[in-house]
Amino acid sequence: MKKRNILVLGSGGREHTFCWKMAQSKMTNQIFVAPGNAGTAALATNLNIGVNDFEALKNAVILHNIHLVVVGPEDPLVNGIHDFFLQDEQLKDIPVIGPQKLGATLEGSKEFAKAFMSRHNIPTAKYGSFTSETLQEGYEFLEQMTAPYVLKADGLAAGKGVLIINELDKAKKELYKMLIDRKFGKASSRVVIEEFLSGIELSCFVLTDGEAYLTLPMAKDYKRIGEGDTGLNTGGMGAISPVPFADEKFYNEIQETIVKPTIEGLKKDNIPYLGFVFIGLIRVGDQPYVIEYNVRMGDPETQVVLPRIKNDFVAMLFATANGKLDEVELLIEDQTATTVVAVSGGYPETYEKRKKIDGLDSHPDKTIFHAGTINADADILTNGGRVLAVTSMGENHQKATAKSYKTLEEIHFEGMYYRKDIGFDL
Ligand code: AMP
Ligand code: GLY
Q1: For the chain, how many structural domains are there in total?
Q2: pLDDT tens digit string along 3-59?
Q3: Does the predicted model carry a pTM greater than 0.90?
Q4: What HEC string does the chain produce?
Q5: Which residues line ligand 2 (CB under 6 A)?
Q6: In a shared domain, residues 306 and 386
Q7: What is the Å distance from ligand 1's center to 292 Cα?
Q8: Residue 324 belongs to a domain
Q9: Are residues 161 and 74 in the same domain?
Q10: Mean pLDDT, the chain, as a whole number?
Q11: What residue numbers bound the domain in which 12 lies?
């Protein structure tokens, strides 16, 4: 078997998990990460290049003889990194895992995603879409809805662009702020107003080569900073896979009404798509509805999804790149995986960086996935809001989380915080 060099883009727990899984593959020669973190540095070569610096990435791909590029975050995809590769004489034959700009619009524009779902009869909240020119219609639309009101900036707003508001007056004021004052910059030059759906959320991940697809294990993430799902939204404080309430009937419902029509819809619309589709779902009664599409894996969901996949991950990715995903049989570990995220004090608001992390060396088992960490001489320092994700496996989520908590008790950095109730609602 020919050994391959792989470049991973990103610097979070998701990317460390990619590297960890790739390092177990027989097909892997060298792994490079741009820009990576202290965790990826232990498994791969970190390159000091930003994910949106396409020219510098091109040079690195050529210099290091890269055979496959795997894009972690959405930003470079929405900015057209895959298109950049396809249009470049020297790069066009190097496969990129992640959709081209058009496919990435499923995440880059809420209105595009809603129109896609409506065209293909994919269940989702009813909606209207408004700009500064149709502000008045937006007010009227709000008047016809019942509280709570869901307002979404159309474009990428670093996870902050969704507002859920209880009073009509306040919703109207926020709509004005978004459209006229550009509260979220260009991202809110268009606003999608949605019907509020009440239910429990889960994340569904699909890997597709554009024709065939594999539905990866489902996961549930815990987005709020506080225990009992209270306080501000974060990038994700923990995750669990499988999701106990996604029984066979519900799973089949997701396949038939959402996954299949999504992949077929992409084909019907001539939207080329190679990579991960992350479908944010909500269960209302017995029915799944789509809350949003993302065009990448989730973080911290990856930290529980990949450890449950027994296949050679690199082989899976090359099968995707070569249009041969129909030949891959997905093998899933029955055990439950949980991850608990340790964050910097103050996150998701302001927090300090560069705090020394102790207690990591006692855990050479590589299921401590790094997010915001950086090497400084012999130390590992915090370098972001989400710092570490500790993944454990167990017979059930209680047993698995107990292991993660035990590991976390031995890790320390100033201001360290983590939720002690991951899985509380299951
Ligand atoms: P999004 O950025 O689209 O994932 O939205 C962020 C969060 O807002 C979601 O994870 C949901 O918890 C919530 N949300 C979004 N849309 C709706 C909706 N239509 N009804 C209820 N909650 C929603
Ligand atoms: N955990 C949610 C996300 O990755 O967007």
Answers
A1: 3
A2: 999 999 999 999 999 999 999 999 999 999 999 999 999 999 999 999 999 999 999
A3: yes
A4: CCCEEEEEEECCHHHHHHHHHHHCCCCEEEEEEEECCHHHHCCCEECCCCCCCHHHHHHHHHHCCCCEEEECCCHHHHCCHHHHHHCCCCCCCCCEECCCHHHHHHHHCHHHHHHHHHHCCCCECCEEEEEHHHHHHHHHHHHHCCCCEEEEECCCCCCCCEEEECCHHHHHHHHHHHHCCCCCHHHHCEEEEECCCCCEEEEEEEEECCCCEEECCCEEECCEEECCCEEEECCCCEEEECCCCCCHHHHHHHHHHHHHHHHHHHHHCCCCCCEEEEEEEEEECCEEEEEEEECCCCCCCHHHHHHHECCCHHHHHHHHHCCCHHHCCCCECCCEEEEEEEECCCCCCCCCCCCECECCCCCCCCCEEECCEEEECCEEEECCCEEEEEEEEECCHHHHHHHHHHHHHCCECCCCECCCCCCCCC
A5: 221, 236, 294, 298-299, 301
A6: yes
A7: 8
A8: yes
A9: no
A10: 96
A11: 4-102
